[in-house]
Amino acid sequence: MTLLKVKCLKMNSKGRITIPKELRDEKFKEGHKVALLAYEDRIEIRPISYVSEKLGTAFASEKSLAKAWGNPEEDEAWEDL
């Protein structure tokens, strides 16, 4: 991956930052969902489609998994593992 631009941003007291307009217009549109990926040494903002495509089921929420796995039969099947 090639680094295209570096911008310095200032976080406000509520932890908010503003993505500069020139970068927003290139990659993101109003209303698009994004994912925040936290690593040990950096934070990345990616379109949600990238995360869904790359991580697939690893991105599934606890709530969605609970529908399939949150039942007594599943609990019993896993209790000895």
What can you see in these coordinates?
By secondary structure, the protein is of the alpha+beta class. The chain has a domain at 32-78. 37% of the residues lie in helices and 12% in strands. The protein contains 4 helices and 2 strands; from the N terminus they run αββααα. Strands 1-2 form a two-stranded antiparallel sheet. Strand 1 and strand 2 form a beta hairpin. It is elongated.
Briefly say what this structure is:
With 81 residues, the protein is α+β, with helices and mostly antiparallel strands. The chain has 4 helices and 2 strands. A two-stranded antiparallel ribbon has the order 1-2.
Question: Keywords, please?
Answer:
81 residues, alpha+beta, two-stranded antiparallel sheet, 4 helices, 37% helix
Low-pLDDT residue intervals, each spanning 5 or more residues: none
- Spatial strand sequence of the major β-sheet: 1-2
Name the structural class: alpha+beta
Shape: elongated
By DSSP (H or I, 4+ residues per run), the number of helices equals: 4
Radius of gyration: 19 Å
| Binned strand content | 5-15%
- Biggest beta-sheet profile: 2 strands, antiparallel
For the secondary structure, the number of strands is: 2
Oligomer: single chain
pLDDT averaged over residues:
80
